[in-house]
Structures are given as structure tokens and as C-alpha cells.
């Protein structure tokens, strides 16, 4: 809090009271201790200045020779640096010829930038973790993982620059990471950055821009919403901030106007060159435009990719890697709270990621990480280390192309009907930890499979290296089986005890619902 107050005081003459566009400065998210995107991409650097002036941007040795310059147009200058390999620290200086003034950012590193966005499970702070003290004590051992956090702001128009900064670019400290619950700094974002640093060994910049209790529509541009047939402003109810999303009612969506966070917390960042993004959101859509999430979520990813690519002048990849956390659990008994549908829709109804519709994505499955003892409510499981580990496996495989990294749990590759059982063959070897009734089958016409009462529990009767046999309970027969589903409730498993895992026991098979085609 203190930090944000100080920062606002410093910036307020320039940011809140907008007119001083001629003041020569960097935009809000360029600062001392920052990470700029490393080679082969080129970092974009921009700011404000006197219209008509020339601004020259240069790095300290050994890159002093390669300065880039820009004219200030409509009070804004923008340069693209030559590619710089990972490393640092450097000083980055911008000089404006008309005022003969220069401004310098110190302790700048080059590395990979990841955006972290979503709702409260992304906002969940390091201080809220189990054994937070241990994690916080480690902060200063990672001076090359740099953190930045946008302030909670919303806007009805697309903003050019952030309206506020919660944590300016900083080296991590226990104090910055260990803010009040849901303030700063995101546990999933931090752990993702820290684990990634462990495997890459070069600087990582993590940018937190998230807000508890928010639906995907708030983070989506009107353009993206339109493509899914969603109105660009669904609600006219003024927003009243809640510190944390309600634990009992997921009914806060109505308070959010579409696109307000896209406008204020994503659009300003588009001009920065980034490596990728991670996302933990969906709870708030279990009760709000749920059936559209299979369009709105993949659509938002497409739109962000296009916009970051364009905003960085082509430096951010058009298909930049996008990782997300599949929803964990909320209510133990309730089968109708929409979590299973959102989990499925998060994958564009494929069940796994990446897939045809969602290329270059990766998913951390969290259905086996329930936490009914979480002091933050069961909707906020504390097991963020597991989530971050699984995300980093996905990033290593998908974003960094590491060949030998297993990051997906088993998924059916073939379902074969036999007279007395159904054989489900998986795309990898499996470990079966228990043989309970986690499968269900529907043997009515397709329409009726929409209704839970027409699903019958089916048990694993046999399993092998990469397959299970599940039963066909009466009155179903092999000829009548239409569909099979797995883990199709809000809270199917105990902690890390779903029935089917990868052979090393680490990655759970994600939930699925699959129609059976006759052979
Ligand atoms: C950056 O500038 C500071 C003074 O502002 C100086 O002490 C430091 O040595 C410079 N660092 C580099 C890498 O040039
Ligand atoms: C600054 O650079 C601009 C663009 O090159 C030029 O038009 C202007 O005369 C320069 N001003 C000064 C004071 O050098
Ligand atoms: C917390 O720390 C204790 C003691 O070091 C350890 O036994 C336990 O496994 C840790 N829990 C987690 C979730 O890391
Ligand atoms: C949630 O919002 C809907 C629509 O405004 C309303 O009808 C319903 O009563 C609300 N539910 C709760 C539990 O507040
Ligand atoms: C999304 O899911 C709904 C049902 O929840 C379905 O009717 C629709 O066809 C799906 N749309 C896409 C694009 O997959
Ligand atoms: C940032 O990118 C957006 C989208 O391409 C563009 O409209 C805007 O002018 C850019 N801002 C700056 C400062 O270059
Ligand atoms: C790939 O991973 C497996 C299991 O961890 C290991 O046994 C094997 O040596 C690895 N292969 C290569 C080429 O790194």
C-alpha cells in the first residue's frame, strides 16, 4: 500500500492530471530495475515529450553505439531497440533535443517478459501461500526475477498508458511479495517467474495485471466480444469495488462492464514487447455467459495476440504462448455450479491444450488440488506451488520447445465398445491410483445426455499400461452407449488423488466428456 501511495504521489502530476503531455518522460511501465524483452525480439520503448522534438534512446556499454531515435508525434515518442541478448544490468537513457534533457533508467535487464492476468486466484498473494515465510525469505535470492504490477483501474475507453501502478519495477523483496491478501504480489505469477528462472537462468520480468471477481468479458476488447455475439457493454450498473470476490456467491459479474479492464489494464501494455502470458480466471464465468466461454476465452487469446503483435510493431509474436490454469474446485456437493462446464470450455471443448483451436497454449490442470480448509475460502485453494509447477512444465514444452518435458496428463486417444465393457485407450502410459466410480456413461439419445439423471456411474474393471476398461451398467448395452465422461462434477477427487495420472504419477488426466462414434 505504502508503495502505491508513494508512487501515485510521484506520478500524479503527470498521470492523473493528464495535460502535461509535453513533460519528457517514459510511459508508466518503464522504470529502474525493469526487464526489457531480450533478443531475438526487439524491445519497444516509448514515452511522452514535446511534439516535434527528437528523442534518442541509448543503452550503456557495450551497446552504447546502437542508439535509436524517434520524433515526438502528438506528445508521444516510441523507439524499437536493436536486439540485445539476455543479461545486464544496463542504463537506458533517453535524450530530447529541444530541452537538451535526458532521463535514465538504471539497473535494466534483458530477458523474457510474461504477463500474468485473471481474477482472484491470480491475485492471491505470496503471503497467502502455505509456508509463506519460507517463500518470502527466498525473495532476495532471485534478483534477476523482476516484478511489476498494474494498479486496479477500469476505464470505458482504451487508455494509452496505465492509470496507476501498484508495484513499480522492482527487485523482489519479502515486503513487496508479501503484501496484504489479494494485494501484492501474485503467488502464481511469482512462482511461475521464479521456477522459470531456475530452468532458463536468465532474467525474467513478470507483469501482474489482474483483479479478483472479474469475468472474461471485462478483459476482452469489444472486437473480441462481438465475434462471440456478446454485447460490448452488458451492464450499466456502476462498479463498486470489492476487496475479494465473494466466497459464497459468484454473482458479482453484473457489476462489471465489458471491456473495462481491457481498456485500463491490458491496452496500455500492448506496446511492450513480451514473451507470453499466463491466466487464472473462469470462476466468475461459471454463472455469467457460461455457455459462451468456449468462444469468449479462446477469442480473447486470439485478440490479445493480434493486439500485442500490432502494438509492438510486430515484435511480440502473433502466436505468443499463452498458459492458463484449468479451474480447481469450489463446492464439494453441488454438481450444478458450472465449474465442470467452464473447465471444458477453457479448452474450447477439446479437453486438453494446446489443440486445433488453441494453438501454442498450455494448461495446468488443478482439479485434483481441492482445499476445503483454505483460510481464503475453498474457491481459493492454497496449492499454488503445484499450479505454478504445472504451468512451468507447459511453458518449457510449449513456449521454450524443450523436447523431453512431459506437461500434459493422459487423454483418451481411442474409445472402443466391447460387449461387456468400454475400453478407453490413453495417449500415454497411465498410473491408476484407485478404481472408484469417476466415469459415467450416457446411453440415451444425445439430447437426453444434457441431463445429469441420464448418466450412469461406471467403474474401472481392469487397467493396463495405457488403457482402462470401464463397465457398462444396465440398462445400457454396448449398442446404446452414446457418451462417456470423467471427473464431471465440481469436486471429484481428494488432494492429488484422482484415479488416473501420467505414469510418473504427477500429472492428472483432465476431465472430459466425449461422444462415442460407432466403429
Ligand atoms: C548507471 O548509472 C549510474 C549513475 O546514475 C552509474 O552509477 C552506473 O555505473 C551506471 N551503470 C552502467 C551499467 O552504466
Ligand atoms: C530537434 O530535432 C528535430 C527533428 O530532427 C528538429 O526539427 C529540431 O530542429 C531539433 N531541435 C533542436 C533544438 O535541436
Ligand atoms: C511447509 O513446511 C513444512 C516444514 O518445512 C513442510 O513439512 C511442509 O511440507 C510444507 N508444506 C508445503 C505445502 O510446502
Ligand atoms: C444473482 O444475480 C441474478 C441476476 O441479477 C439474480 O436474479 C440472483 O438473485 C442473484 N443471486 C444471488 C444469490 O444473489
Ligand atoms: C460452446 O458450448 C455450447 C454449450 O455449452 C455449445 O452449444 C456451443 O456449440 C459451443 N460453441 C463452440 C464454439 O464450441
Ligand atoms: C500502442 O499500440 C496501439 C495499438 O497498436 C496503438 O494504437 C498506440 O498508438 C500505440 N501507442 C504508442 C505509444 O505507440
Ligand atoms: C527424457 O526424460 C526421461 C525421463 O525423465 C529420461 O529418462 C531420459 O533420459 C530423457 N531423455 C533425454 C534425451 O533427455
UniProtKB/TrEMBL annotation:
PANTHER family from the UniProt entry: SIALATE O-ACETYLESTERASE
Domain Sialate O-acetylesterase: 112-370
Organism: Culter alburnus
Matching Gene3D superfamilies: SGNH hydrolase
Signal sequence segment: 1-20
UniProt keyword terms in alphabetical order: Hydrolase, Signal
MF GO annotations: sialate O-acetylesterase activity
Superkingdom, natural source: Eukaryota
Residues annotated as transmembrane: none
Signal recorded as keyword: yes
Protein name: Sialate O-acetylesterase domain-containing protein
Keyword match Hydrolase: yes
One GO BP annotation of this record: carbohydrate metabolic process
Amino acid at each position: 500500500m505504502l508503495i502505491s501511495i508513494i508512487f501515485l504521489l510521484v506520478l500524479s502530476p503527470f498521470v492523473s492530471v493528464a495535460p502535461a503531455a509535453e513533460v519528457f518522460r517514459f510511459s508508466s511501465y518503464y522504470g529502474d530495475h525493469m526487464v526489457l524483452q531480450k533478443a531475438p525480439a526487439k524491445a519497444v520503448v516509448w514515452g511522452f515529450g514535446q511534439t516535434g522534438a527528437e528523442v534518442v534512446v541509448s543503452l550503456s556499454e557495450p551497446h552504447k553505439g546502437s542508439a535509436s531515435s524517434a520524433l515526438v508525434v502528438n506528445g508521444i515518442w516510441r523507439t524499437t531497440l536493436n536486439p540485445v541478448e539476455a543479461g545486464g544490468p544496463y542504463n537506458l537513457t533517453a535524450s530530447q533535443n529541444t530541452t537538451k534533457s535526458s532521463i535514465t533508467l538504471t539497473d535494466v535487464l534483458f530477458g523474457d517478459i510474461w504477463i500474468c492476468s485473471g481474477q482472484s486466484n491470480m491475485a492471491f498473494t505470496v503471503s497467502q501461500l502455505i509456508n509463506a515465510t519460507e517463500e518470502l525469505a527466498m525473495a532476495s535470492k532471485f534478483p534477476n526475477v523482476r516484478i511489476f504490477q498494474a494498479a486496479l483501474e477500469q476505464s470505458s475507453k482504451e487508455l494509452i498508458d496505465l492509470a496507476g501502478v501498484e508495484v513499480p519495477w522492482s527487485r523482489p523483496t519479502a515486503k513487496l511479495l508479501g503484501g496484504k491478501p489479494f494485494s501484492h504480489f501474485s503467488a502464481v505469477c511469482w512462482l511461475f517467474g521464479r521456477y522459470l528462472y531456475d530452468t532458463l537462468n536468465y532474467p525474467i520480468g513478470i507483469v501482474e495485471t489482474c483483479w479478483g471477481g472479474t469475468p472474461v468479458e471485462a478483459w476482452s476488447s469489444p472486437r473480441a466480444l462481438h465475434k462471440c455475439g456478446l454485447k460490448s457493454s452488458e451492464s450499466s450498473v456502476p462498479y463498486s469495488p470489492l476487496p475479494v470476490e465473494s466466497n459464497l456467491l459468484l454473482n458479482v459479474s453484473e457489476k462489471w462492464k465489458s471491456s473495462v479492464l481491457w481498456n485500463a489494464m491490458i491496452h496500455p501494455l500492448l506496446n511492450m514487447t513480451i514473451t507470453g502470458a499466463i491466466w487464472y480466471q473462469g470462476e466468475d464465468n461459471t454463472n455469467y455467459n457460461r455457455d459462451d466461454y468456449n468462444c469468449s476465452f479462446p477469442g480473447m487469446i486470439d485478440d490479445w495476440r493480434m493486439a500485442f503483435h500490432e502494438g509492438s510493431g510486430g515484435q511480440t509474436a502473433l502466436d505468443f504462448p499463452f498458459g492458463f490454469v484449468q479451474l480447481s474446485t469450489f463446492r464439494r456437493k453441488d454438481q450444478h455450479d458450472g465449474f465442470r462446464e467452464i473447465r471444458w470450455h477453457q479448452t474450447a471443448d477439446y479437453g486438453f491444450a494446446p489443440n486445433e483451436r488453441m494453438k501454442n497454449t498450455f494448461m495446468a490442470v488443478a482439479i485434483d488440488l481441492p482445499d476445503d480448509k483454505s483460510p481464503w475460502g475453498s474457491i481459493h485453494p492454497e496449492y499454488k506451488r503445484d499450479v505454478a509447477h504445472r504451468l512451468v512444465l507447459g511453458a518449457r514444452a510449449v513456449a521454450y520447445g524443450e523436447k523431453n518435458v512431459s506437461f500434459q496428463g493422459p487423454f483418451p486417444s481411442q474409445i472402443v465398445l466391447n460387449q461387456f465393457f468400454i475400453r478407453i485407450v490413453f495417449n500415454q502410459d497411465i498410473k491408476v491410483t484407485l478404481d472408484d466410480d469417476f466415469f459415467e456413461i450416457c446411453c440415451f439419445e444425445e439430447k437426453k445426455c444434457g441431463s445429469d439423471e441420464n448418466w450412469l456411474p461406471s467403474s474401472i474393471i481392469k487397467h493396463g499400461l495405457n488403457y482402462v476398461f470401464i463397465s457398462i451398467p444396465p440398462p445400457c448395452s454396448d449398442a446404446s452407449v452414446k457418451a462417456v465422461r470423467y471427473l464431471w462434477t465440481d469436486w471429484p477427487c481428494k488432494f492429488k488423488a484422482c484415479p488416473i495420472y501420467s505414469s510418473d504419477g504427477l500429472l492428472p488426466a483432465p476431465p472430459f466428456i466425449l461422444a462415442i462414434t460407432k466403429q
